[in-house]
Amino acid sequence: MTRGKRFCILFIIMAIHLQSWNECPAKKSILDFVADVTDEGSQTFVSPHDRIAVFDNDGTLWAEKPAYFQLLFALERVKALAPENPGWKTKQPFKAVLEGDMKSLAAAGDRGIIELVMESTSGMTTDEFSKIVSDWMTQAKHPRFHRPYTDLAYQPMLELLDYLRMNGFKTYIVSGGGIEFMRVWMEGVYGIPPEQVIGSSIITRFEIRDNTPVLLRQPMLDFHDDKAGKPVAINKFIGRRPIFAFGNSDGDLQMLQWTASGKGQRFMGIIHHTDAEREWDYDRYSMVGRLDKALDEANSRGWTIVDMKKDWKRIFVFELR
Amino acid sequence: MTRGKRFCILFIIMAIHLQSWNECPAKKSILDFVADVTDEGSQTFVSPHDRIAVFDNDGTLWAEKPAYFQLLFALERVKALAPENPGWKTKQPFKAVLEGDMKSLAAAGDRGIIELVMESTSGMTTDEFSKIVSDWMTQAKHPRFHRPYTDLAYQPMLELLDYLRMNGFKTYIVSGGGIEFMRVWMEGVYGIPPEQVIGSSIITRFEIRDNTPVLLRQPMLDFHDDKAGKPVAINKFIGRRPIFAFGNSDGDLQMLQWTASGKGQRFMGIIHHTDAEREWDYDRYSMVGRLDKALDEANSRGWTIVDMKKDWKRIFVFELR
Questions:
Q1: Which of A42, A111, B71, B122 has its CA 20 to 30 A from that of A127?
Q2: CATH 3.40.50.1000 residue ranges in chain A?
């Protein structure tokens, strides 16, 4: 193919894809990377087999304020089940939920959420849990935007997922969120099937109940998929090193380092929340989604940093409706 | 499509595929099942998205005698490392290895193997481990057939894997074997990529060594993927219920039950080792690969049972060379 032809095709692709991205260095770095690894003649070519892309979820593919959405889900469950669990009145993080003490809750972090979700949804089968999540997703509304939580997925990132898949990438979620919580709605919203969703998990137990095999949720943590847990989970679930990774907080640093340390072309991206008006503005001092060490490392190593305010024409999927 | 045309196409596919299978009820049940779930017009149609097929490995896709091949790998490691580990002389299952006491070893089962592999390969990185397995696979020879272990994959089953994939199935391994042991060679032998290989695992730890991120193998069990663990692992890794499952021992019973209990068309298959001459002949009283309860359940529920001696024209891949 001639240089002119290649430029022309690239131009058409640019015009069609990533529509919600402004022309900016972040967009250019994505397009350049994809062009490099898909150019069969070049030394930078990567076979489709190895085009593995991993994405954090909270704060990377959808919003995470005022608190992780899964935490808001768990709060409702805990409140609903409180009468049957009088012990929760004096036990953290349940006490904080029942007293509306959001500060203590935020301090409990991912593990606090996992504990709330575990305790408030254990004893039921995996199918029963999916049903509860699915129902909640249909009727719950975000406190600021008064819309279903899935409306707060980021339109530019959905376009990026599509763009990567069109270019032969396999897209994965690698999130601290609960694996069974996410799988219920991610295929519909992100086009990512359950087997490509990796997250934190609790222990489940196989049992035959009335002649029917079921998997029962146990109140025990199986795996916390955050920080140094992310490369561990990537290795366990995928068994290959990604060439493309996107995150937004210090919880994603090790996943980005793991991706960066492979051979050949690599893409490491970070969403920087800079838009107080359209979304939220936070980084180093935020309880939820703190971006501090990873921001320093991204700057010093030349990783791609998306400035949400400058780089995105629109933020949420609902803005296109 | 007319009935005649469909029959004609089916006939051509039958003629090309599953060549190493004799015309038998097992082969017919596979062809019928695949025809049913891929027939778009019919009520039995299953969309490609849900065509998930799971396979046990040892005794289902390759041989498992005189002992699990991974155990034979671990024995060599233990012997090689014994001088540096004097404590092994008095500690089971290491003592059994060093004394050549195969009976005590067989009694240690999967967990014994995992312990041997864990202890003899911990402290190293996942990359170092892959290299050791890869080297062993290249040079080690099976004691009876004097060939590389991968030559003892079952030719009829490779044809079945291909046949399913050609019909839109996603093929997975769900084995008690070590996940990192299997991933090294399975893509080359079975055409199954690492992310579709599920197995037993040990804990790994992320660490930065001389500025390079590594995953270090720890001498701690993470998950034992056998018996009731198999449906648990299927749910965790795949997040959807298979419609097709193949095993050969009681360790596969729960995976078969889990597959059988979903809605719509289901296929459950069992390899029965009946050929003492070409392979081995064992079931209810075998230490390795015991097939007892699962055989009863297969008989009573009408699952497909492959009689290796009668149903397979050839057994091993090397017979075709």
A1: A111
A2: 3-64+152-209+223-320
- Per-residue DSSP letters for A47-78? -GGG-EEEE--BTTTB---SS-HHHHHHHHHH
Listed by number, the residues of chain B in 160-179 with a beta carbon closer than 8 Å to a beta carbon of chain A are 179
d(CA A42, nearest CA chain B) in Å: 25
CB atoms within 10 A of CB B39: 14
The average pLDDT across B58-76 equals 94
Q: Model ipTM?
A: 0.92
Tokens 């090790």 belong to residue: A254
| CATH numeric code, A3-64+152-209+223-320 | 3.40.50.1000
Only one residue has tokens 């359209």, namely A278
Q: From the list B197, B222, B235, which residue is nearest A126 (CB)?
A: B235
* Closest chain A residue to B230, measured at CA: A206
**Where are the CATH 3.40.50.1000 domain residues in chain B?**
3-63+150-320
Strand, coil or helix: B146: coil
CA distance B278 to chain A (A): 35
| pTM: predicted TM-score of the whole model, two decimal places | 0.93
> The domain B3-63+150-320 belongs to what CATH superfamily?
HAD superfamily/HAD-like (3.40.50.1000)
For residue B274, pLDDT over 70 is answered with yes
On whether the CB atoms of residues A245 and A269 are closer than 8 A, the answer is yes
B223: closest chain A residue by CA? A222
Q: Does B216 touch chain A (CB under 8 A)?
A: no
What's the rounded Cα separation, in Å, for the pair B85 and A264? 39
CB atoms B261 and A212 under 8 Å: yes
B294-320 residue pLDDT tens: 999 999 999 999 999 999 999 999 998
**Smallest Cα–Cα separation from A110: which of A79, A65, A67?**
A67
Cβ <8 Å between B237 and A197: no
Distance from C-alpha of A159 to C-alpha of A59, rounded to nearest angstrom: 16
Inter-chain residue contact A195 with B237, CB threshold 8 Å: yes
Q: Express each pLDDT in A4-29 by its tens digit.
A: 666 555 555 545 789 999 999 999 99
User: The tokens 């935007």 sit on which residue?
Assistant: A145
State the amino acid at position B179 in one-letter form. Answer: I
Q: Is the pLDDT of residue B3 over 70?
A: no
pLDDT at B111 over 80: no
Of A213, A222, A228, the CB nearest to B261: A213
Least Cα distance to B205 among A258, A292, A244 occurs for A258
pLDDT of residue B7: 58
Query: Which of A214, A236, A237 is best to mutate for the B interface (most B CBs within 10 A)?
Result: A236
